[in-house]
Structures are given as structure tokens and as C-alpha cells.
Amino acid sequence: MGQIKTCAKCNQSKKVTDFYSNKSMPMGVKAACKSCTKDADKRYRQKWYNKNKKKHYADVLRSQKERKAEVNALVDKHLVGKCCRLCHKSDKRLIAKYNGDSIKKIFKIEEVKRALLDADIICLSCVLQLGWDKRRKKKISGGEMASTG
Asked: Which of 17, 132, 134, 136 has the most Cβ atoms closer than 10 angstroms to its Cβ?
């Protein structure tokens, strides 16, 4: 039979396994049970968020802009010296596509680096000739690109 401890917050007697460990305490567990600790943490996070909502939102937007700029720079650097795989011209605006979608839509840097290894490099005029239209959300599949070139 396991040891029993009383929670300092809710005053209920519970098994020691219902408490988070804390080696500095006499029984080796925290004074409050897991559910009380979770509730207190949730209240603290909500209070912090309400107090810092504007700053938090500004930080998230700034972080997203920085990440987007980093992704764009990485893709643009990769496209230097490349040419369209359909018309073989390098003087046009090039787009890196992965699974039919723009690589610049990928958010994580490591995923962008992996996607660039297998990317289709195609110019904007070839994309438009193939009927890809952002308004209709059509995407170019690998088969359509291969059959056109």
C-alpha cells in the first residue's frame, strides 16, 4: 500500500503518486497535489497572458516576420544561378515549388532546407501557362509539370 499525503491546497488525502516529485521536501513530493498544481499554473498563465496580451501579440508578429524574412532569404539564395526546369530560362522570376506548393509557405527553417533539395524550380510564366491560379487554389501536380516539359 502506497503512502498517503494531504494536499496543502485542497486538504484532500491522496496517494503520494498524485503529487509531483520535489527532492527538497521531506516526503520527496510537492505540498500541493498534481491537480491543484495544474490549476494554479493555468490560472498563473491566464493572468500573465491577460496582463501581457499586447506585448505577447507584438512579439509573435515580430517573430513571424523575422522567420518569413529568413525563409525568403534562404529560398532566394537557393534560386541564384538556377533556371526554370520547363523553359530552361534563368532571366525570369523563379519560384521554388515542393509538392505543388510554394516553399516560401513552409514556416520551419529545417523543413525549408529539406524541401529545397527536392524542389521544382519553375518560372512564373510557366506556372501561369500550366493554369495554376491562386484565386482558385489550384496546384500543379508533379505529373502535369513533367508532361508539359
From this structure: 132
**pLDDT digit string, tens, across residues 34-77:** 999 999 999 999 999 999 999 999 999 999 899 888 888 888 88
pTM of the predicted model over 0.70: no
Of 109, 113, 110, 108, the C-alpha closest to 78 is: 113
d(Cα 143, Cα 63) in Å, to the nearest integer?
Answer: 37
∠ CA 112-76-127, rounded to 5° = 85
Interhelix angle 109-117/53-79, rounded to 10 degrees, is 20
| All residues at 6 or more sequence positions from 22 whose CB lies less than 8 Å from its CB, including other chains | 28, 29, 30
* CA 20 to mean position of chain CA atoms: 30
φ and ψ at residue 108, rounded to 5 degrees: -85, 130
